[in-house]
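Hi V.,

You were right to ask for the full record rather than a summary. Here it is.
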Amino acid sequence: MTAKKNEAAPKPDDGRTIPIAAPNLETAPSEVARWYWVGARLDAPRSSIDVAGVTFNKITETIHAVEGQSQQRVKHPGTCVRLTENKLEVLAERLSRMVIRGTAPSGAATERGAGDVLDEQPANRTPKIILSIPTEEQLKAVSASGRPRYRKFIARPNDRPLAEVLYCVPCPEGKNRPRGIDDDLPPPLSETGIQVGNAPTEPLVGPRKSTSHAGMVDASTGDQLARLLS
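Predicted structure:
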């Protein structure tokens, strides 16, 4: 026997329907990602510094395809990244415990300091290092585990908050627009705090590639930086 075309599918014997609940697709305000211009100021001890999963670069390069050329590299101060309010809260907490320890005279007796050291020390000199001060919870966890304890953090006269050399500001109108090399840098986070953006966000646009610039420069404004990189 041949089945009839367009015949309706048989219904369950009991006629009962099991509903499918719609998933919750609403995004909490604290999880909305917006564009921020972030970077390291020119007196930062390193060309790239990572804090709470956010990379603060002194210089980045975007790569553009140019007619008649293989590619063109354009330098920018810092970079634009998408961050949520929750991520900014984590960043603020982490920065409140991060310190730059200044350079000591060559050959002087030195101490690695408390917490996690993010820079290695060459044998011939003691460079600026970045210290992460442990929290009380971390100290208790390490003590309970039986592992070697953190040294107690003791501030030194030449210590500086890491926030003094980093910046993070909302992008105007919430748009991802890399800054020009002549643009002046924003004030450091130690002065501004972390400003939470409220502009509507937009999808990623612009060049496909971006690379950090490893060279370190010693200048204070955008026009000085342009001359050094020309």
